Amino acid sequence: MNFELTEEQQMLQDTMRRFLSERYDTATRNAILDSAQGYSSEIWAQMAELGIVGALFSEDDGGFGGAGFDISTVFEELGRAGVVEPLLDTAILGGGLIARLGNDAQKEMLVEVIAGELQLALAHGEPESRYDLSRVTTRIESQGGKMVLNGRKAVVVNADAASHLVVSARESGEDDDESGISLFLLPADAPGVSMRGYPLFSGGRAAEITLDGVEVDDATRLGAAGEAFDALASQIAAAEVALAAETLGAMETAAALTRDYLMTRKQFGRPIGSFQALQHRMADMMIELEQARSAVILAAGHLEDAAPERDRHISAARNLLGRAGRLVAEDSIQMHGGIAMTQEYELAHIAKRIVMADHRFGDTDTQLERFIALSAA
Amino acid sequence: MDLSYTQDEIAFREEVRGFLDEKLPEELSAKVASGVVLSKADHDRWHAILNEKGWLAPNWPEEFGGCAWNAVQRHIFEEESARANAPRIVPFGLSMLAPVLMKFGSDAQREHYLPRILSGEDWWCQGYSEPGAGSDLASLKTRAVRDGDHYIVNGQKTWTTLGQYANKIFCLVRTDTNVKQQEGISFLLIDMDTPGIEVRPIKLLDGTPEVNEVWFTDVRVPVENLVGEENMGWTYAKYLLTHERTNIAGVGFSQAALASVKRMARQERHNGKPLIENAHFAARLAQVEIDLMAMATTNLRIISKAAAGQAPGVESSMLKVKGTIIRQELNDLARRAAGPYAMPFASETIDGDNDPVGPGYAAPTAAKYFNNRKLSIFGGSNEIQRGIIAKTLLAGGAK
Ligand SMILES: Cc1cc2nc3c(=O)[nH]c(=O)nc-3n(C[C@H](O)[C@H](O)[C@H](O)COP(=O)(O)OP(=O)(O)OC[C@H]3O[C@@H](n4cnc5c(N)ncnc54)[C@H](O)[C@@H]3O)c2cc1C
Which of these three, A180, A211, A226, is where a domain ends? Predict the structure, then answer.
């Protein structure tokens, strides 16, 4: 076994850490949070230039990475700095699905994605689907001899910045069937697509999307008709590795801020870190942090496995990160006292990133259920 | 032992319910239920309705215009108010300052200030904490120096809740620097529009402008605004804290929150079934409910003891710790129940000008979860409360 990063990954980590500590401080990030766009085009372009987007794609697709540990390396750094720029949505979800399923024409778009010139979003979840990946009620219907999409998509992250959307729709079968789901790659301003955009609680933006007679054809199809589920599950697995790594990075920052604060904040004439009640909690936090790191490594290392083995490790990681993340976020706030309750303080944003990550792709309990099902099998 | 309420208590509960049914404006209860931040006008409105009924000051003696309810009646009122989604009563004037004035204030102060608290003419805020003095409140540095018939106040208070609405602030200030910290503190009443006071809002992590910094630069305060004796402020502050900790368990809030999580979990569907039927979620919910049932009874036991004239000691610290853990756990469950629709930033709960993105019940859940992290920080943090419990328990033993 070898737990070292490759030379390339190490370089990537160093580059990102330097770039983000120089260019993405609390004030810059808080200004981005307050902006109407919800992310910085300038930061986005610079990250692309540094190869951060490219690191998330394989060489075949024009990048220089794309494996589990490339993803975890990048996202851990993003998490440490509380980055809200939509790498997960544009590169992993949107770009990843195009790389996996796209024809040559569609794949040309990846050049622009890697160059930082194009934003994407995955419009899959629906108002009633919660964390149920196979539940798709958006239908493909024939209308006047044409194929059209009708339905609604919920909390589509990065939708109003995206020039193109990857949209899921049901070709056949029942609402919850894994088979019968198709994907389409559509311009975000295609006729019949309407959006209500809004900011997210932990930064970035999303939209509710209504699809009303949106015309599609074989050229806009991404992959084979009715067979998108496996690709969708694989790419969401990659996104879950990304999200878990991002959460790990954010937990590291929360713990580091707390450690510093315990050593500098004085009450009753001494540093609050001298109170044993806080020392033990700090120690517990560090124990959970190491657990979280290992869980992310396990998930990243099994990303290329067959689905059941892959998903079992991913659910394990996300369940553990859900529990440990909540502990770290809550205890960090508690040990800071009032200061952590203020919006402008770094920890406030970091804690929100950690806790709200639990609301994407299945929460702690949903992951536990999947882990139980896969472990019993 | 007898776990039933008396006939009188049952009749009282009916009376409270009837009053809330009739007088609580639907507009206000809807706002409370959907987690919308209340405006000053909203607070004032409910304050006036309660005052008209004579139910504004449950903890005041009748001679000052209170309703002189016993502890069980107060508990019933709190429970029913929370159930009906009534606005919480802003405590600073009514349940913090007033008891101090009644016990330590001058006749002139009582006559002047108490009626104005009831009428809503004065909105008080609490100027205790400073950037350097939180848990260690006695280390506060805001200075008041006597100059003829005035004190000149310089310094900074922080975390001042709803200070933006207040026209008055009661402050702990340092009047003697040559004695033990606790012995050089005085309790001053200050007009917020005195020259030299500046209020700067602090946005909390959920985006709400709930607290403030209050800066004092050469602020002249008439000496008659001193409460009690100079340098005795710490004693008064400690007395006030015992009042700050009434209703510390927040049983009514938790019961209302539990009912609301159950409503959500019946509507949300998880893998095709109501979330409330999901074993993992149901187990979490049941455990909190079990804790809450026991805690509500602990609360009543302590209240009965208090009613029998025994002062609650460490029990109020115990209620603070358990009560806040339960409330925070319920906030966590509400956030979970909301699923992906917990993610949108519900700006409408702050400025009220757009419709919620998902189901209305989901909108405030993330904000509430984060905002209520404060419960275990303020009013004596949970670590400080545990310290009090342990110290009392182990007094004279382990050295
Ligand atoms: C939303 C909000 C509203 C507030 N409203 C008001 C208000 O209206 N008026 C007002 O005066 N104040 C108000 N406060 C301030 C509140 O009372 C303080 O936040 C509180 O006293 C804690 O102080 P601190 O924030 O400075 O934390 P600190 O005292 O610095 O504590 C930091 C951490 O150290 C721990 N700690 C400290 N001492 C010990 C010890 N001896 N042993 C073990 N652990 C210890 C604490 O528990 C905490 O976890 C408010 C605070 C908040 C968050």
Answer: A226
Domain that includes residue A273, residue range? 230-376
Both A193 and A288 in one domain: the answer is: no
The ipTM (two decimal places) reads 0.97
CATH code for the domain in which residue A65 is found: 1.10.540.10
Neighbours of A340 (CB within 10 A): 25
Contact A340 B203 (CB under 8 A): no
Nearest-neighbour CA in chain A from B214: distance (Å): 15
Distance CA B323, CA B375 (A): 9
Look at the pTM and tell me if it is higher than 0.95: yes
Q: What confidence score (pLDDT) does residue B3 get? A: 85
| Model confidence pLDDT, tens digit, residues A49-107 | 999 999 999 999 999 999 999 999 999 999 999 999 999 999 999 999 999 999 999 99
B14 is catalytic: no
Indicate yes or no: CB of B135 within 8 angstroms of CB of A369. no
What percentage of residues in chain A have a pLDDT greater than 70? 100
Ligand 1, atom 13, lies closest to the CA of: B159
Classify B364 as helix, strand or coil: coil
Q: Is A144 left (phi over 0), alpha (psi -120 to 50) or beta?
A: left
- Calculate the alpha carbon distances from B181 to A268, B134, B143, B387 in Å: 11, 14, 13, 20
Instruction: Compute the distance between CA of residue B312 and CA of residue B38 in angstroms, rounded to an integer.
Output: 33
Mean pLDDT of the A271-299 span: 98
Closest Cα in chain A to B202: A342
Across the range B117-136, mean pLDDT stands at 97
Burial degree of B286 (CB within 10 A; 0-12, 13-18, 19+): exposed
Asked if residue A180 and residue A70 are part of one domain, the reply reads: no
Which numbered atom of ligand 1 lies nearest the CA of A334?
49
CB contact under 8 A, A278 and B336: no
Confidence of residue B347 (pLDDT cuts 50, 70, 90): confident
* Tally of structural domains, chain A: 3
Strand-strand pairing, B124-127 and B185-191: unpaired
Pick from A132, A365, A370, A372 the residue to mutate for testing the B interface (most B CBs within 10 Å). Answer: A365
Q: Is the CB of A338 under 6 A from ligand 1?
A: yes
Region B346-373: mean pLDDT is 86
Q: Alpha-carbon distance A224 to A376, whole Å?
A: 32
Residue type, A354: I
As given in the structure block, the two tokens for residue B89 are: 């009563």
CA angle (A53, A54, A58) in 5-degree steps:
130
pLDDT tens readout for residues B132-153: 999 999 999 999 999 999 999 9
Ligand 1: which atom is nearest the Cα of residue B136? 29
Mean model confidence pLDDT for chain A: 97
* A2 falls within a domain: no
Is pLDDT at B247 greater than 90 in this prediction?
no
Q: What per-residue confidence (pLDDT) applies to B309? A: 65
Final residue of a domain: which of A69, A97, A114?
A114
- Judged on CB neighbours under 10 Å (0-12, 13-18, 19+), B318 is buried
The catalytic position among B79, B130, B230, B244 is B244
According to the model, what pLDDT value does residue A36 have? 95
Both A236 and A371 in one domain: the answer is: yes
Cβ-based burial of B290 (10 A; exposed 0-12, middle 13-18, buried ≥19): exposed
Task: Retrieve residue A274's tokens.
Answer: 């001298």
